[in-house]
Amino acid sequence: MDKLPEKVILDLAVRFVLNLPEEDRDSWERILPHCQEAYYYYVDVLRPRSPELPEHVNFGQFTRQLLGMFTNATDSDISVGLDVFKSYYNNVQVCGVVMFDSTRKNVLLVCAREGSRWVFPKGKLGVNETAFDCAVREVWEEVGVDVTAYMQPEPLVQRPPLARDPPMCFFAALGPWDASSTQSFKPLCVGEIHDIRWVPLAEIQTEYQRTLRQQDPGLGFRDQSANALTWVSSFYPDFSRVK
Predict the structure, then answer these.
(1) Predicted local confidence at residue 215, as pLDDT
(2) Residue 18 forms beta bridges with which residues?
(3) CB–CB of 67/82 below 8 Å?
(4) Does residue 201 register a pLDDT over 70?
(5) Of the residues 59, 78, 184, 203, which has the maximum number of CB atoms within 10 A of its CB?
(6) Residue 157 φ then ψ, to 5°
(7) What percent of the chain is predicted at pLDDT more than 90?
(8) Which domains, from first to last, does the chain contain?
């Protein structure tokens, strides 16, 4: 693993960990979200400013180095903590926005890295945050647009936890955007978004129908990785409620 320089770890620890109140350091569920913020700050801010810093550092490696330097936690302790946090984090509601263009025939999708599936701008609900506010914030961070004025007040989609997916809440934004271009969209989270594109609803419908033909009764979609649009296509029936 590529280790971060100690001065970088010290800076991140001071910013995000060392000055936390006691109640935010008494459990993995409380301290690891702050470690995650430090990780994203490294990926989105420090690394782009200083390309000589290690590029291929995942959250687990980062956290082990961060907490290993300033706490008495062993590597084994931190591994257990990461598992606890993963279980907790997977049950936190995901909120996002289905952004429709001016014709209502295209939706805006993002992908985290080359070859990964396309999704709506979305993210985890924060502490003391409403689903609506979370959805607006995530679009601002991932696409660089304030969609508040275009949002419908009631959710378009609400899903309970399913298999590998956490609970979800998506709102519709009916905007004035032109689907011929994505130049006006600039992600603020540099390390999170690889690409942005408008996708025709007709293309999503085609994938939805293809997937239905492979669906086993009672089992849901058999292969979520079969196509980069398979996950999004599972929401296609909800789009019919948008006028």
Answers:
(1) 62
(2) none
(3) no
(4) yes
(5) 78
(6) -135, 135
(7) 49
(8) 6-89 (1.10.10.1050), 94-239 (3.90.79.10)
Within 10 angstroms of residue 24's Cβ, the number of other Cβ atoms is 13
Per the structure block, which two tokens stand in for 57?
């550092």
* Mean pLDDT, rounded, for 30-54: 86
| Other CB atoms within 10 A of residue 133 CB | 14
Q: Which two tokens stand for residue 120?
A: 């709506």
Mean pLDDT of the chain: 87
* Helix-helix angle 6-16:28-41, to 10 degrees: 120
β-strand pairing of 122-124 with 94-100:
antiparallel
Helix 28-41 / helix 59-70 crossing angle, nearest 10 deg: 110
Lowest-confidence range among 4-8, 78-82, 95-99, 110-114? 110-114
Nearest to 194 by CA among 109, 94, 96: 109
pLDDT for the residue 222: 44
Mean pLDDT, residues 63-74 taken together? 89
Burial 102-111 (b: 16+ CB within 10 A, else e): eeeebbbbbb
- Judged by DSSP in three states, 116 sits in coil
Partner residues linked to 199 by β-bridges: 107
Residue-level pLDDT at 126: 82
